[in-house]
Amino acid sequence: MTRRFAAITVCLAMAVGAMIGLVLAGNLTPAPAYSEPKARVADPATVRPAGAAGTASFADIAERLNPAVVTIDASARGSRYRRAGAAPGPEPSPDLPGRGTERDRDGPRRGAGTGFLVDAGGHILTNHHVVDGAERIIVRLSDGRTLRARTVGSDPDTDIALIKIDSATTLPYATLGNSDTLRVGEWVVAIGNPLAYEHTVTVGVVSFLGRKLFDSSFDRYIQTDAAINLGNSGGPLINARGEVVGINAAVSSRAASIGFAVPINQAIAILPQLRDEGRVTRGYIGVKLRTVDADVQRSLRLSSAGGALVQDVATGSPAERAGLRPYDVITAVDGARVESDDDLISTVARRRPGTSAALTVLRDGRMVTLAVKLAERPQRDRRPDGDATVPSGSRGSPLGLAVRAIDADFAARYHVPDQLRGVVVWRVDAVSPALDADIERGDVILEIDRRPIHSVDDFDRAVASVRPGDVVAFYVYKPSVDERRLATVRIDEAGPAPARGGESPAAR
To answer: Using an 8 Å Cβ cutoff, are 154 and 274 in contact?
Structure first.
């Protein structure tokens, strides 16, 4: 018994000794408790943004770009200076200074914004609305110096302005990137002076690309959740490589985490004109367009989707002189394919007024080529919206709307052209395909499926054959914006379903 006990004791001692040896050698390290950190926290200077391998940290970006960011104070006497106002447009309604109402009050006007240097000679990019109408512009540099600036050029269509300061020393400047390579979800940094807090740095991601807010002809806004507030206007939006990819321009009035920036490529494209001429001129043919989507293709029985559908032709415009008509589909310019209305707008706008172009047009199933000489794109003229007068003696329709004949009072109130023939929409059901297709009270229906509508009887006959599953093409005149549009109304097999209007309010 004593020998057995002694043997067991020796074995236990040997086992314990072996375990102690393994621990000391590092081959049997005890697992850490869940509350223990699993790795040492990296030094803040070495932390890199997620998804941006090989790039500088946000702190490095801010340190490098901050010296190129400036504060802009703009002022003018009396009512000459346009101040901040709520801008009209689609939801979300952006708070964009200079694009709202003009206040005609006496006394000086002052505004503040941000800008950033783009060369060592003192050229600064900012927003048009930051300096619009300003008589005196003061720029404050990151080193504390204040210098007088002058406006070199400005473009209200893209909300971009170029100003300049003169300095005896070489100035730091930002590197411009390529906004066309941005991706949704990519990290971005905003630097600016929100609410007078100078050189504030905020971080977020790209939430959406190509957002349209004010004018669908040119709007390609970058949407971001990086915090942008009043005072950030004109400041840089920077990618994870430290390159400027946007100019912060607008914020949502309904949310604190939705901001918008003008793509830097739009600024790069017009910089030569701003420097040399002080303004930007663009080609114009005078048509209202929409993209040929599947519904348009089906309702108009087109052979394929793609291209830009002509909805209206301005009187006296290059398009009218060239022979363009409503329902024409422009498929190419000088042989280069046109994919959408945006594609055509961009192609025409990049060309100088006075130049000529050959348009390939699909008309009633056959291809024709039309030569057009471009004019200069005019500024848009928007009239305020108003409610249509509620008439008596009208009829309903299975599409969820009721119409009536045009009378003298309506024509005079909304400046309806004398030659216009159609019926007026006076009621649209709250849940209907017509409402989903952006047909509104006060619109004038001119055609349905390319059949002219001159009376309520014409309207009733045109919609009598509508069946579930059909896509109906409505050609309407909108008095509130003085333009014609094509709206496609899709009737779902199981009943009314959403339809897409999809039109571009204006194309130049």
So the answer is: yes
- Report which DSSP code applies to 103: P
129 is catalytic: yes
* β-sheet bridge partners, residue 148: 138
Q: H or E segment at 224? A: strand 221-224
Whether the Cβ atoms of residue 211 and residue 219 lie closer than 8 Å to each other: yes
Backbone region of residue 210 per phi and psi (left: phi > 0; alpha: psi in -120 to 50; beta: other values): left
Element at 448 (helix H, strand E): strand 444-448
Domains and their CATH numbers in the chain: 62-165 (2.40.10.10), 179-272 (2.40.10.10), 283-376 (2.30.42.10), 401-496 (2.30.42.10)
Place 467 in a pLDDT band, splitting at 50, 70 and 90: confident
Please tell me whether residue 458 adopts helix, strand or coil conformation. helix
Q: In the predicted model, is pLDDT for residue 248 greater than 50?
A: yes
Render pLDDT for 115-151 as a digit per residue (tens, 0 to 9). Answer: 999 999 999 999 999 998 888 899 999 998 989 999 9
Separation CA 150–CA 148 (nearest Å): 7
Direct distance between the N- and C-terminal alpha carbons of the chain, in angstroms, rounded to an integer: 107
* Close Cβ partners of 408 (under 8 Å, ≥ 6 residues apart): none
Question: Which residue is catalytic, options 159, 225, 342, 343?
Answer: 159
Go through the chain and tell me how many residues it has: 508
Per-residue pLDDT at 47: 36
pLDDT at position 263: 96
Q: Which of 95, 123, 128, 129 is catalytic?
A: 129
At 70, list the tokens: 């400036």
Q: How far is CA 152 from CA 80, 126, 155, 184, 407, in A?
A: 19, 11, 11, 33, 51
Confidence (pLDDT) at 95: 35
Closest CA to 180 of 246, 119, 248, 242: 246
Residue found under tokens 């793509």: 263
Q: What angle do CA 74, 281, 248 make, to 5 degrees?
A: 40
Candidates 154, 233, 252, 340; catalytic one: 233
Question: Residue 182 contacts by C-beta under 8 Å, 6 or more apart in sequence?
Answer: 206, 209, 222, 239, 245, 263
For residue 26, is pLDDT > 90? Answer: no
Q: Which two tokens stand for residue 234?
A: 């004109």
